[in-house]
C-alpha cells in the first residue's frame, strides 16, 4: 500500500490524546509497531488499547520529555523492544499561556521552551543516535502554523515553534546524507477534544468563528488528517522530503 509502514518501529510522543493519539492509530493501521509515550499514563495506555483493538501493535512507555534522561530511556526502550528505531513523531508540547509578553514570568517562558523546543532537541539527539546504528530513518516534528506567523498573547509558544522549524531544518541538513530525513508538520486549528469543547462554549464561540474564517477550506482540521500527513512523511513514499515545514492548516497560512 502507498505510504505503508509495515514492520517499522516508530515512537509517538504526546500520544495520550488529540493529534498524538490519532496519529498513533493511523501509523499502527499502516503496519507500524508504535511506541506510545505520554506523561499521562492512563491516557497513553488508552491509546495502546485503541491500537490493539484494531489488531495492530503498540507498547506504552511513560516519559516526561522535560527530563533528558526520560527521553534517552524512551529511545532505548523502543530499540530493546523492536530491535531498531525507524521513525518518530515528536508531537508532545504545551499550549500557550495566553498572556501578553510583558506579563509572562521567566518560569513560564523557560517551561515553554523546555517542553516545546528543548525536548524536541533531546528527542532528535537520541533518535538520531539510534537510527545511525541501523542505516537511517525518518523523523517528523510537530511545529504549528504559529511557527511561521504570530498572534498576540502567545510569544513563548511562537518562539518555541519557530525554533522547532529551525531545528528541523538543521537536522535535515546534518543527517540527510546519512539516511535520516527530518521534517515538520504545521497544524492549523485542529478539532481535538479541547478545541471541540471551546468551540461550543458561548464564551469562546465568536473567537473561534473568526478563526474559522481564516481557514479557507471552511472548517477546522481533524486529528486524523494530521496523522495522515505524518504517516506519509514517515513512509518511503516521501523519500525526497527532507527539511520541509508541511502546513496542515486548511489554507490558514495562505491568507
Give the topology string: H per helix, E per strand: EHEHEHEHEHEHHHE
What general outline do the C-alpha atoms trace? globular
Helix content: 40-55%
- Judging by the overall fold, what is the CATH architecture? 3-Layer(aba) Sandwich
Q: Give the tally of β-strands.
A: 7
For the largest beta-sheet, the strand count, sense and barrel status come to: 7 strands, parallel
Which structural class best describes the helix and strand composition?
A: alpha/beta
Task: List segments where confidence is low: pLDDT < 50 over at least 5 consecutive residues.
Answer: none
Amino- and carboxy-terminal Cα gap:
34 Å
Approximately what portion of the residues adopt beta-strand conformation?
A: 15-25%
Strand line-up across the major sheet: 3-2-1-4-5-6-7
CATH topology: Rossmann fold
Q: How many domain regions?
A: 1
Q: Given this structure, which CATH class is correct?
A: Alpha Beta
Classified in CATH, the superfamily is: NAD(P)-binding Rossmann-like Domain
The total of helices stands at 8
Please state the average pLDDT score.
Answer: 95
Radius of gyration: 17 Å
Topology:
Layout: E1 9-13, H1 18-29, E2 33-38, H2 41-52, E3 57-62, H3 68-82, E4 87-90, H4 106-133, E5 137-142, H5 155-175, E6 180-187, H6 193-199, H7 202-213, H8 223-234, E7 245-248
Parallel strand pairs: 1-2, 1-4, 2-3, 4-5, 5-6, 6-7
Helix pairs in contact: 1-2, 1-8, 3-4, 4-5
